[in-house]
Amino acid sequence: MNKDIVVKAHGVKKNYDNSYALNGIDLEVTSGQILGFLGPNGAGKSTFLQSVLGLINTEGNLEVLGLDPRKDRHKLLKEVCSITDVAVLPKWMTVDQILQYVDGVHPGFDLQKCHSILSKTNIKRSSQVKILSRGMVVQLHLSIVMAINARLLVLDEPTLGLDLVYRKEFYSQLIEDYYDGEKTILISTHQVEEIEGVLSDAVFMNQGRIVMQDSIESINKKFLELRPNRDSLERAKSLRPIHQRVELGREVLLFEDTEHEKLSDLGEVRPPFIADLFMAIMDKTKNGDNA
Amino acid sequence: MMTVLFTMIRKEIQEHKLAFIYAPFIVALVLCAVIISVYLGLTDIQTTNFSFSTDVYDEKYKEGMLLASPEAKTAVIRAGLVVLGLPILLTVGFGLLAYSLSTFADERKDRSLIFWRSLPVSDLTTVMSKLVFIVVVIPLLVLPNLILLQLVASLSVSIYFVSNDIVPFGYVWTSYFISDWFRIIFSLWAQALWSLPIFLWLMLSGTYFKKPVIGAVVPLVALVVLEGIIFKANNVQEFIENRLGFWSRADSFPIQYEEARVVDITDVYLMITTQAFWIGMIASAVLVAGIVFTRSTNNDFTVE
């Protein structure tokens, strides 16, 4: 099945005060992907998402839905939604006023749908944003976004500062009620473990570069984590793991492109958590840089 | 496009109803209360600089009004009604200066700019909606308060004049009564256009500076001082003073009216034909471009 290219980046760079926040990003995102951008602070995740939304100028080639996001931001935002920070909804407005406003300026917004989504929450339409909790503000923002018929949704740390219940609700609502298999979602977050089950693809970033990108399915096939039996540790190490750590006093080895059968005799084998793989890749990158 | 503009202007009204709906209305109500109580003889306002009292209507005044021509009586009444509205206009004027300074600074401060920018509204449309709000909508919001004040004042004065044999009832309700409302609205629109460079300058400061008040004032003071030192001139200072004042009294206006009066539509036309007006329009266009550029590129949300 042919998938539309939603984001196409080639050699995208962003320079701030002689240091590169983005240093040659090459990336292609197709429709239906739920792509997670993972990386430490300063990796360039937010900068890249901002450039996708046309909020900052970048060097190189960047196309979003076939448009130049910087030049055609206004046109692009009819097809692209974003939640780029928590609690950015204007505090002085009531919920109804915000909905009226979005209804008036966004051709793809379905007011009835938004009312219906909100009716399942505790948010009153007459409430001012400033009296809502942070969780409710994000819930309101998500309800607005879900009522917009957009092709691309950009989420930059959407659940920052929220408690666990709201974070879980946010992602389950996103997947169950919003995602239809055709829409594309780009997510950047520090809470990797919470979006692990949501992602179709992951991009690991560090120091403005992409250090790894792949589908979750492929990652699960490619990487395996082994907790070797005590007597198999040396044999396991001889198979050249790409990373090694100690967890609760037990060695955990990460292998790349190693057959499951070879490892299963040596101990407990499973695909790595994205967060652990991310740490391993970062360590590997750092060691590679130091070497 | 019109729906978008209407929606954006409605948002401005909702956000700033305190400054442009409640504040002028409260001032109008206070003035109405003062007028009614003065003409009922309940109170007198006497200060060293200002007096508002029925004591002014002494025998000499009565005699003067009885002898005055109908045109002179009408002119006095029309001018009186205009002067009454000045406190409302000053309230809105200060509100406008505060609005201009804060409208783009506040959206940076509370980070709601991120939300506005996530919607398909161009920066130019946003700036133009605020410009239309200032020039067209705010005068329309102010006018009902002026009308209310004029009606209350005219009724109070009519009753007082008739009961004291100063002027017959019909003179107060001149043929200009309703048509002056149109003159006033045109005059307010003209005033907003005249002062537009000042409002836009304040807006520009709000889009860029961490401290918008200092950002708005310091460069202008510096310009005034530098112009004085280098060119021994004070064009910048005069420009600012003129734009902050009433357009009909500006230095560049061909006929400077010293007295308070209802301006005619022809005066507005005259203003549009002046070079100073077009200099203001060009300055405004440059400032609009500056605001659009700064709002779309400035990602610094620190505002103090």
From TrEMBL, chain B:
Superkingdom: Bacteria
What are the transmembrane regions?
20-42, 75-101, 131-161, 181-201, 213-231, 276-294
Q: Which UniProt keywords apply?
A: Membrane, Transmembrane, Transmembrane helix
- Write down what this protein is called: Possible ABC transporter permease protein
Q: What organism does the UniProt record list as the source? A: uncultured marine bacterium EB0_39H12
